[in-house]
Amino acid sequence: xxxxxxxxxxxxxxxxxxxxxxxxxxxxxxxxxxxxxxxxxxxxxxxxxxxxxxxxxxxxxxxxxxxxxxxxxxxxxxxxxxxxxxxxxxxxxxxxxxxxxxxxxxxxxxxxxxxxxxxxxxxxxxxxxxxxxxxxxxxxxxxxxxxxxxxxxxxxxxxxxxxxxxxxxxxxxxxxxxxxxxxxxxxxxxxxxxxxxxxxxxxxxxxxxxxxxxxxxxxxxxxxxxxxxxxxxxxxxxxxxxxxxxxxxxxxxxxxxxxxxxxxxxxxxxxxxxxxxxxxxxxxxxx
Length: 287
Known about the structure:
The protein is mostly helical and 287 residues long. The protein has helices at 2-51, 74-109, 115-123, 130-148, 156-180, 185-192, 197-208, 210-226, 229-234, 242-250, 257-279, 283-286. The chain has one domain: MetI-like fold, CATH 1.10.3720. The mean pLDDT is 80.
């Protein structure tokens, strides 16, 4: 009996020790994966920042010195492309919200035939390879120009229409997400008190979606501003976006100016995120 009790106690101690070892290995593995992920994300960013201050015409290691002169050179070299990208992104944001917010409300609150089909169609561009989507849009725009005598190919209007295709799904998705955890009791109460459907949407639903709408606008702006796959097919010499201008610049130059542009973009987007998160908790919508 005594021997059996000792064996049982020893077995329990061994099991506890094995469980503790497995728990430590699991924590170590998780920490290692997090460290690798952080390195993959932040090491290229830090290297880009480091390259942007090289005092070299060619990127050489180690540099002979450091300078901030590349940053003032951004506007003279890419000012027109930056302006085009801003106009394009702002138009894409406006169009995406005008389409995506009502569609998100309909998908979240509506109960009608074809709801699943409409949701699939609105979100389908997210599943398409960007380069294939860009080529398809280019062929479609060329066909429109040939049949109707328009000049959409290489125009800002054609770019806006194409960008709406890739930004609207994000507006729809975030609008639906912003209403997923919102209680419908306030809307039902407003309706029962005699408020018309449009009044309910304007006074109750849209204020509840504020965080989602702002997050959708931000996502649409970033996606449109940084898109290159569509712009490669649809830009023209007079209408060139910043990503395409950077790609063309890299064909003939290997200097830190492109790194300076990338750092400036990171600072701008980071500042916008911090400013918006101060007033609207974006994490509640995009988590």
